Amino acid sequence: MESLKNKGKRGIQKMKCFIVFLSLLSLGNSAPVNGCDHLVKPITVSKEDMLGRWLYVGGSSDLPGSRSLGRLLKSVWLDVTATAQRNTLNLIQAQRIYGECSSLTYNVTFENSTMIIEQPFYLKEVYLTTDCSNCLVVHEEVTSGKDHFTSLLLFSRNKTVSSDVQETFKKQAECLQMSSPIMMDPNYEMCPDDVPSSEGLSALNSLLEAKMGHQVARILDSLFDLFVN
């Protein structure tokens, strides 16, 4: 009888340890609380604020392939211009992957501090706070069929931002429970303005719909995160 009691006590102790372990896991996986409300609250941005050239500084995303692509990208810039339609903007995006430059062009709807694409996939961008007057912190959500992806991107009018701005950006990613952002090397060569453009949305949509490609891209992301610092 004494042996059964001892076994029972040990069982209860193990159960308590297991509950504590689960509680610690829960705490470890929860988003930080201090200061997060302010950091992830969308801010007001006017159409005029959006216009002009923006240089990509860094970002975090759960889009398949984004982690590996983030380390292969050598530079990205965006040119945002107004169109004849009041709530429509035109974007030209140029990127250099090693020595090769390519560019995409597409229109977006911009209204009430929100950028939206409705077809062929759904994209919504809002903008978060930053202490950098020449920066834009983009919180982006993309829905393609049943798939949902989130990105957090930092753009600037300049090639570099201060370490404080980078730390705040990393904190925002942490608050949103996203992977640590991959930051660009500021000593990069920008793509020229005259790179031939292709229709951007159809090209992006084909990548989003490539389910088999998603599996391969996620494996590449894991390998890059494991072996590349």
Automatic annotation (TrEMBL):
Subcellular location per the Swiss-Prot or TrEMBL entry: Secreted
Supply the InterPro entries for this chain: ApoM, Calycin
The signal peptide annotation in the UniProt record is 1-30
Task: Check the record and name the Pfam families matching this protein.
Answer: ApoM
SUPFAM superfamilies the UniProt entry points to? Lipocalins
Predominant location of this chain? secreted
Q: Is rRNA-binding included in the keywords of this UniProt record?
A: no
Keyword annotations for this protein, in alphabetical order, are:
Glycoprotein, Secreted, Signal
Q: Which GO terms describe its cellular component?
A: extracellular region
Database matches in PANTHER family: ALPHA-1-ACID GLYCOPROTEIN (PTHR11967), ALPHA-1-ACID GLYCOPROTEIN 1 (PTHR11967:SF2)
**Protein name (database record):** Apolipoprotein M
